[in-house]
Amino acid sequence: MKQGTGHSLHLKQGNKHSLHLKQGTEHSLHMKQGNEHSLHMKQGNEHSLHLKQGNEHSLHMKQGNEHSLHLKQGNEHSLHMKQGNEHSLHLKQGNEHSLHMKQGNEHSLHLKQGNEHSLHMKQGNEHSLHLKQGNEHSLHMKQGNEHSLHLKQGNEHSLHMKQGNEHSLHLKQGNEHSLKLKQGNEHSLNLKQGNEHSLHPKQGNKHSLNLKQGNEHSLHLKQGNKHSLHLKQGTEHSLHIKQGNEHSHTLNKVTSTAYT
């Protein structure tokens, strides 16, 4: 719980949180129901099962990081450069990209995409609003009868965990994407070479075709940026899930007491 409090400092952003507060008002109406408590405790046990699946999910995330190490092979880099999706990754390279600004009219088109990229980052902040609710949930955990009502929301949470599994597939692709960016830094060094660089403008026309694909790719980046925020918060979230598992043991004890 102390970790949740520290985490909430990072989560003070966004407008979607007010919608969840309205649900909180409806939640208080459910608080008045006494006899249904034992039924909700049964749902609580199902909720703890979803938390166990959450822990397995975090293990797959660790495997994703190991996967990114395998993508750092140099020879594969030249093949990836030909793909439009990798082109958007090169836009993330700030300082190296400014060197290319001096070269050609086609290069200025990449800057425009860079501005669109910063807009996608703002959407990532909306994701942090959902984590605020997690901290409020931990406060409700201290309350006895009210706690069972929050477990209803836990069932809705388990639905998000299912979406999280689909999300992890995108994260694996995200790891491959980040590796290509590292290779992009090596690519910028090649551009700094003078005589060899003059050969590249001939390839610039082919590059403009990739830019068209890059625009379509930027739509996917909107989702990708939201996704990358989930990954960062996912690590912190896995810590909360471990606490959730300990909490589910307490719920099992409360359930057995309720039936007796």
Topology:
Blueprint: H1 2-8, H2 17-30, H3 37-70, H4 74-81, H5 84-90, H6 94-100, H7 106-140, H8 144-191, H9 194-197, H10 200-259
Helix pairs in contact: 1-7, 3-8, 3-10, 5-8, 5-10, 7-10, 8-10
Can you walk me through this structure?
With 260 residues, this protein is mainly alpha-helical. The protein has a domain at 39-71 and 148-190 and 208-260. Helices cover 86% and strands 0% of the residues. The protein has helices at 2-8, 17-30, 37-70, 74-81, 84-90, 94-100, 106-140, 144-191, 194-197, 200-259. Helix 3 packs parallel to helix 8 (144-191). The protein is elongated and about 85 Å long. The model is unreliable at 1-22, 25-32 and 97-101 (pLDDT under 50).
List keywords for this structure.
PPE family protein PPE40; 260 residues; disordered N terminus; 10 helices; elongated; mainly alpha; 86% helix
Q: Secondary-structure element sequence?
A: HHHHHHHHHH
Question: What distance lies between the first and last C-alpha atoms, to the nearest angstrom?
Answer: 30 Å
Mean pLDDT: 54
Beta strand %: under 5%
Biased composition (Polar residues): 251-260
Protein name: PPE family protein PPE40
Organism: Mizuhopecten yessoensis (Japanese scallop)
Region (Disordered): 191-210, 239-260
Précis, in short:
With 260 residues, the protein is mainly alpha-helical. The protein has ten helices and no strands.
